[in-house]
Specification:
heterotetramer, A: 77 residues, alpha+beta, Ubiquitin-like (UB roll), five-stranded mixed beta sheet, 2 helices, 25% helix, 27% strand, B: 156 residues, Aldehyde Oxidoreductase, domain 3, five-stranded antiparallel beta sheet, four-stranded mixed beta sheet, 3 helices, elongated, disordered C terminus, nucleotide-binding (chains A, D)
């Protein structure tokens, strides 16, 4: 199982803060495609991604028990 | 790096306390940046806003910024506090304090900190506008969702 | 320009109060500079120092700096307080607060203020060194009088 | 009469904060020369000068009742 976190506009689109799915072994790119196909997230390609609270690239692998977070453009400051 | 130096809080931030954390005998300069809630943005009036954070990661990113500052300006000491939750006009959202031996690094490191916060710290603001609409978006304020919701669907 | 904004005082300066003077609904950014008494200068240990001012002119020059800032960065509001008299290590000698709509002018105007203070505000520090000597001089710290008195006489 | 103010090292050299002298009509340069001749002030040429709290030039005139201040390099900040 992996945990997927959604924030800001993505959280509003999903209607939830997080989901848990059997996608261990997927790359970040794979998870994005799966989300796009299954949840019609319009802006998923524009978001940054973090695995276990560190920014990750599309090629990075999501392992069993990892938390992957989709991070829309931030607006701090 | 102490988590006391880089914090996310739902309480008002005391500039006085932040300042006291960085003042050291070897220092001659302290710079502080405060981000406050602005009433008008591009002519639209904000009533209030809420900051939401991916809190554990936000603290980690603040610590990372502190580390980057330490490497670039070794004689500095940095503290950063970010307020989450509901804020009114003129409330302080973020405070960055930097002390250093001389003033130049204190200014440079401070400006670096706020730029990096806007790049990598997972915090978002949700604005409540006077005209009844709301807005969630990036700091460039280029994307507005006047219906209060971003559009659904669309292509990757 | 209100004399409340540009002051010389023999009392400790409250950063919190200074900040409150410049925060305005239209602003999103406040920068603060604090000059603190540094223990070591070029390897010499300071015990304490005294700031002496040509007070009426110093206030006038602070007001002039405020005016210059207003002309260069019209959306800013500036306050400056300078402490005179006896100060110990880490005591705050000067506080400059600038508020503005966005952060860039707040940083720029703040840095401008401290540079100008070092040029035109008639304030002098007299340092008491740990080795028993004292020093009075300019901010470049190029002229030292180890006997506690500048040399008398000499040529024009 | 004009009033002359001394600060920092000049004040220590003079041993006083101010003097009053009958030098109305002098230029700043004249006052500097008079001080150099009569009080052996070593650093008078390096100081800035203010008349009535505004910085002045060597050619400026000091008028009756004016206050002229000699301002060594400042060390604020």
């Amino acid at each position: 199982m992996i945990k997927i976190l959604f924030f800001a506009r993505l959280q509003e689109e999903m209607g939830t803060e997080s989901i848990e799915v059997e996608k261990a072994g997927y790359t970040v790119r794979d998870v994005k495609e799966w989300l796009a196909d299954n949840h019609q997230l319009s802006t998923i390609s524009q978001t940054m991604v973090a695995i276990n609270e560190d920014y990750a690239n599309d090629d990075d692998m999501v392992n069993e028990s990892d938390t992957i977070a989709f991070i829309p453009p931030v607006s701090g400051g | 790096m102490s988590s006391d130096l880089f914090t996310i809080t739902d309480q008002p931030i005391s500039v006085e306390e932040m300042t006291q954390k960085v003042i050291r005998p070897e220092c001659g300069a302290v710079t502080t940046f405060m981000g406050t809630v602005r009433e008008l943005t591009n002519g639209k009036r904000t009533i209030s806003l809420e900051y939401h954070a991916y809190e554990s990661m936000a603290v980690k990113m603040l610590e990372q910024i502190g580390q980057e500052i330490k490497e670039e300006w070794p004689d500095t000491l940095a503290v950063i506090a970010y307020r989450k939750g509901h804020l009114n006009i003129s409330d302080i959202a973020v405070v960055i304090c930097i002390s250093s031996l001389h003033r130049k690094p204190a200014y440079e490191a401070n400006q670096y900190a706020i730029e990096r916060i806007k790049e990598i710290v997972p915090i978002w603001k949700k604005e409540q506008w006077a005209d009844g609409t709301e807005w969630i978006g990036d700091q460039l304020e280029t994307t507005a969702y006047p219906e209060g919701k971003p559009p659904k669907g669309g292509s990757l």
